Amino acid sequence: MAVNAGLQEPKLSSTVELHLSCLNLPNLDVLSKSDPFVVIYLKAKPENNQIQSHNEEKWLEIQRTKTVWDSLNPEWSDQILLDYHFELVQELRFDVYDRDSQSEDLSTHDYIGSIRTTLSRIMGSRGSTYSDFLMGKNGKTGKFGKMIIRAEEVQSCKDIIHIQFSAHKLDRKNWFGLGRSDPFFTVSKSREDGGWVKVWDSEPVMKDISPTWKEVTIPVQKLCNGDYDRPIRITVYDYESSGDHQLIGGFQTSLRALQPNKQFTVVNEKLKQKKGDKYKGSGTFNVVKSVVEKRYSFLEYVRGGCELNLVVAIDFTASNGAPSTPQSLHYQPPTMNFDGSLRIVSHLNEYQQAIVSIGQILQDYDSDQLFPLYGFGGAVNGQTSHCFPLTFDPGNPEVTGVQGILEAYKNAFNFVSLSGPTLFSQILAMANRYASQHPSQTSQNYTILLILTDGVINDMDQTIEQIIEGSGLPLSIVIVGVGQADFSNMEVLDADDTPLVYNGKKMKRDIVQFVPFRRFRSMHYTALAAETLAEIPEQLVSYMSSMGIKPNPPTLASSRHMHVEQSFKDVPSFHSEFGVAPPSAPPTQL
């Protein structure tokens, strides 16, 4: 039985808090101003991730704010806590009501308006401040006021500690005290109830009573929940393959006390009681290295202005099948059932569904919404190319938003004929060039390459070489395999277990995530994004940390939000229609 089953760091998800305010709500009371409160909903995840039509959407109420009495510009003190997941689409709805009674039955109150958005859009907004006009029951905006949502990450300890231990003259436990022990140690942290919970196992060092264990990196939160003075206990055992490990001894300390060159006596309480004053301990335990590294969160980088740059590459090889036939992976029926909000995608092909699923997450973190879009394996003007812009303008390969990607992809078949073979290296070299402008402390950016492909790679060595080159750049690579091809070589590129090596050069970090689309065909389209993007936050944070780049202070709210607020003043006939005097002071600027 292995001693160390492997401690995995938690995903870099975060708890965030939202604070709400509104401006220029309509007055729905006769003798006084409105008494507004907000009901917050989270869109329910479809059962078994099945595709859900717009009419089948279900919303879960997660909180109601207190009522702010007599105010058309309310600011609520309520803290709305949500678990934020970068890889998920978390749709939120905020309904504003004017309270007319003490009843909690919403039908007894006057509905003012509502906004719908996603948590990623809120967090991806400049300064994590999002604003929008409230929409009335008639679907119109402009006279129902505006909501402002300010978000902030709830602080927790994300520090990590690089630590290494050794021991000297531990007790011999094998062969009746004649053989050498196989020592390993565990770390446990104290609980408020006086108990202990194990949080770490080391690997055993075989046949060595004065071992030096490998350096390890452990989240501080795992060791002491951010409290450096919290009691922790280190216990040393002699490893036994049966699992009946023999206790050598232990001691109690704190993370703060684990300073380099510090020595602790390993004590076995039973032997101490048995031997009395003759007992001098069961060896010493030494701190070889102890360095705490400040570990920032993905959100801290985003809130500080770090831009995520999405680059998309689409496979135009002949193995996809003729686009005009329904059997083709590129087939696009004459009528496609999806709306401009990209929520209904039931008739899109797998390429389009992957674009919508992943693109709608990442576009919220790119301020200019301009995405370089390329094809590979297709023939343009009769010449096969393995990296060509789908704008067909080499000087301007960018399109605007997810809708722009879909439109350019659809139009590309007027100019591209399917060809082959499937080569990745030129696309990867292109992405490396995009990412080669390393971020600095003042200018932070990170590139994500999305490759959509149906086939087996025919330039594996060159592909690995380019991935290794990209592993030292601010770059992550997401590969989605469409169709029924054998994608076993893609699993090699994923390199979760075995790092890629080419010509003696080893990749610096894991930057590739591969997912076959067929695994998610029967699920809601957002399930694909949840799988493919789950590793991006950790990859970004690990790269920035390795370069010594810290998050910048949160940026100010964008001019776009200021423009929305200013434009509200220009809504024609708003005040005259409702007979409401404008506020005596201008609204607070974001």
How would you explain this protein's 3D organization?
The chain has 590 residues and is an alpha+beta fold. It is 19% helix and 30% strand. The chain contains 13 helices and 28 strands. The strands form 7 sheets. Strands 17, 18, 21, 22, 24, 25 and 28 form a 7-stranded mixed beta sheet that branches. Strand 19 and strand 20 (383-385) form a beta hairpin. Helix 5 (350-362) crosses helix 10 (526-532) and helix 7 (425-435) packs parallel to helix 8 (460-470). The longest helix is centred in the middle third of the chain and has 13 residues, at 350-362. It is flat.
Quick structural overview:
Helices cover 19% and strands 30% of the residues. It has 13 helices and 28 strands.
Any chance you could write out the topology, listing elements then pairs?
Layout: E1 14-23, E2 36-43, E3 59-64, E4 80-84, E5 91-98, E6 110-118, H1 119-124, E7 129-135, E8 141-153, E9 160-168, E10 183-190, E11 196-201, E12 216-219, H2 220-224, E13 231-238, E14 246-254, E15 263-265, H3 269-275, E16 284-293, H4 298-303, E17 307-315, H5 350-362, E18 370-376, E19 378-380, E20 383-385, E21 388-389, E22 398-400, H6 401-412, E23 416-418, H7 425-435, E24 445-453, H8 460-470, E25 475-481, H9 488-494, E26 501-502, E27 505-506, E28 512-516, H10 526-532, H11 536-546, H12 559-568, H13 574-578
Parallel strand pairs: 17-18, 17-24, 24-25, 25-28
Antiparallel strand pairs: 1-4, 1-8, 2-3, 2-5, 5-6, 7-8, 9-12, 9-16, 10-11, 10-13, 13-14, 15-16, 18-21, 18-22, 19-20, 19-23, 26-27
Helix pairs in contact: 5-6, 5-10, 7-8
